[in-house]
Amino acid sequence: ETVTYTDKASGVVFNAWPVGDLTIGLALPASALTTANATEFIGLLTCTSPKGLGTGWCGVSLGGGMNENLLVVAYPSAGQVLTSFRWATDYTFPTVYSGSAKLTQISSATNATHYSVIFRCQNCLAWSQGEVQGAAPTTEGYLLLGWAHATASPSNGACPNSFRVGQHDSQGIFAGQLNSAAVNPSYPAWAAKATSTVAGSC
């Protein structure tokens, strides 16, 4: 089920989907459902930390399945929420994505039960890795999204480009229906709030 969620601090309005142990949200440019497939979005990830403050990781596939689709991973570390773009060609640990995607944060938070990040994701709804290309066309009115969640923290977690994780504890794929709340003329102003590049300690 698609719900509408408004972040009080930033004012960003999302189409959001509570699935498993996380909530995924997207906000899109005003023309994304009608005349022009969006290549970027403002995203929300809120994930649970069943083992306490600063633990766990979660991820989203922007094309549904894990393989040959752009993956966005988030996890708490030292009071921040770190993110990494990843790419998989098999059901093994994904490598770092080498395409042109860019992520900047609007805000993040961690507490004893959850961690959350709101971010702008540029060049994320069309992707290219080597000879493989893909896209998530927003004018179709829905996005096929995959998700994964784990309770154990990554190793080497201080650096998003070199962290390691085991297999996730839960996962799923769903069609996120997009409605009129997903698009807003305020998108450029919201996107301008994404000024923080959180790189960790590499």
TrEMBL record:
Transmembrane segments: none annotated. InterPro entries: Cellobiose_DH-like_cyt, GMC_Oxidoreductase_CD. It comes from the Eukaryota. Residues 5-187 form the Cellobiose dehydrogenase-like cytochrome domain. It holds the Pfam family CDH-cyt. PANTHER family: DEHYDROGENASE, PUTATIVE-RELATED, GLUCOSE-METHANOL-CHOLINE OXIDOREDUCTASE N-TERMINAL DOMAIN-CONTAINING PROTEIN. This is Cellobiose dehydrogenase-like cytochrome domain-containing protein. It comes from Lasiosphaeris hirsuta.
